[in-house]
Amino acid sequence: MLPIFMILPFSLGSQYIGGSFAYRGLSLLHIVLLGGMGLLIFLKYHIANRKILYAVSGIVMVLFIAFIFPRVKEAFNVVTKNPWTETIVGYQSLISVMEGYIKTATVNELFGRLYFLWPLVTILLARDKRVKQKSLFIYLVIVIGIFNFLVTQYSIWFAPFYALLFGYLLYFIYNFLRERLSGQLTFLIVPIIGIILFVGFQPVFVRYRFTFENMPRFSEFEAYLWLRDSTEATSHFAEPTKKPEYGVMSFYKHGHMIIYLSQRPAIANNFGKDAPNFDVPNKFMLSETEEAANKILSDYNARYIYLDHNLYELYLAAKFLNLDPRYYFEMYSTETDEGRPTTALTLKLQTLNTVYYRLIRFNGCRVYIDDTIYIQPMRHARLVYVSPTELPIKIFEFVKGVKITGRTKAQQAVHLFAPVDCRHLSFVWADSLMSDRSGNFTFICPYTTDRIPAFVVSAGDTANVFISEDNVLHGDTLNVYF
Predict the structure, then answer these.
(1) 236: phi > 0 → left, psi -120 to 50 → alpha, else beta; which?
(2) Is 399-479 in CATH node 2.60.40.3390?
(3) CATH for 218-375?
């Protein structure tokens, strides 16, 4: 029981994000496991009748499971099928069935092929009469091994036990070979054990490439640093409980990088659906009107919007909000280049109308598709950064926008064109509307035109408009005359 008292002071003052038994609650779970083992040992020495002992022990284990399960079930992807945990390797099982095939890559990369022998090694150790005082060790191996099998991130607990188990296995193999090989062949023991180790742990040796694959891509890294160097710093960066001047809206997976690399507050981060604001970016991305999107940005004081070109994020956003992804995508089965079953997604009209797609694909411009579909422009989001890549990272700024008013003929089509030059991308932001019965019209434009003017066109007449940065930020009104 000494380990309980050693780690108890550190556990009592800890706050566990995601629950008291999440992987960050390492000490607290160990206290429960050791406490449960202590109770079983106590029962063993005070109940002589084996049938009563087994019955009472069974009741204790059922109560233990009933107590612990509600606190860890959110992490068990195999139980909850939560869309967030399905996207994060740490919350998935070590071995999982995905779209018709068994995935064992996680096991091989973390523990190697010898992992599949640990239950047999545990049985071998339990039956080995030469090893004394092993009950606690075997108990922890079984309980933590099951935890680790269900949730990959619990590998930090199981790794020490795994190392001890296979240290025992190698010792067993060594004695087995030494007893059966004659004196002249004993030199083979070391090569045989070396081959076992190489074959067993070879997948772990090449895991370095996965480490780099999980790092931010260069285009992402460059965008994070641009956000840090080119935007206004906020207060209270080291005091997250205080309210900063603004935040950055992005899909959850960018949250940590925006906080630590960009040094800007993120509206949502990688801690998942148990963290505040996790659903906010999902609702923002799937908004089909600018009014709904602007309300979310205003409610959470978001000034910048960080987007990467990955339509799968819309699929995830829908699942996170318990929406049917088939509302946004046509889905059909296909195969990867390796012949594995997968699901392909094609866009529906509803997807084109989402704020995410209008920004990342159309840069917030109005778009006509086949003369039958009209995509509204985003009048309060201006592109301020774009990466020079095939699928670019884009950062938008949420602004009030300048109001451009004027008068023309009644019920007349009016068009606004504003040239935009943003780093590696040049385009013309445009908007169109009909004047009212008195010929009045009002545009809202998020872009400045200090060098090359914007222009308004109506009934063959054209008027130039020069828009300053202050006009856009303060929501000023400019009048145009034909």
Answers:
(1) left
(2) yes
(3) 3.40.50.12610
